[in-house]
């Protein structure tokens, strides 16, 4: 079946921060006089709250046993992430080019407030035919239900849709388990290439290589 739609992950696929997330988290924690917490602990709490409206439940878990206001920390972290956020080189023109041929989708794990604010900062609120945040859904990636909602929003079949993302479990294996082909975005320090993906693309080469991969599919 010919490709009708291409959908993307957001963080570390289409957009990156110019400061690493661990540093941004540490800065936000200091700003609200919160005790230090590791990036790993944050990610564990985040994974348990993929359908939350905001990061407050994430930080409630992270700050358990303290009197720090999780809403204040969520705001401080969101501000720092957004200030450091920018598109991967070339992807904006790539999206414009792809939109002439395919329906474009986005499926990003995370709370509604945080992820929608990233799209506004990037100027991408209207960039996609369907932009889904798992905070609005009943399940996050890699759950098949999240990908089924994406397909419904794009009005496409799984066999005619390609998903592009960096995370092996959430993006590559989640998409393939739901019947989509997956293209894995790789980068130094990121996950190893997974054989479930139909192609692997270095993030810096995504804008140049992805259109060719799709046209040859």
TrEMBL record:
Q: Which cofactor does it need?
A: Mg(2+)
Could you mention a single GO BP entry for this protein? small molecule metabolic process
Q: Which InterPro entries match?
A: HAD-like_hydrolase (IPR051400), HAD-like_sf (IPR036412), HAD-SF_hydro_IA (IPR006439), HAD_2 (IPR041492), HAD_sf (IPR023214)
Residues annotated as transmembrane: none
- What molecular functions are annotated in GO for this chain? metal ion binding; phosphatase activity
Q: Give the Pfam families listed for this entry.
A: HAD_2 (PF13419)
Keyword Ribonucleoprotein set for record: no
Keyword Metal-binding appears in the UniProt entry = yes
* Keywords, sorted A to Z: Hydrolase, Magnesium, Metal-binding
Tell me the protein family, please. Belongs to the HAD-like hydrolase superfamily.
What PANTHER family does the annotation carry? GLYCERALDEHYDE 3-PHOSPHATE PHOSPHATASE (PTHR46470:SF2), N-ACYLNEURAMINATE-9-PHOSPHATASE (PTHR46470)
Name of the protein in its database record? HAD family hydrolase
For this protein's source organism, the top of the classification is:
Archaea, Methanobacteriati, Methanobacteriota, Stenosarchaea group, Halobacteria
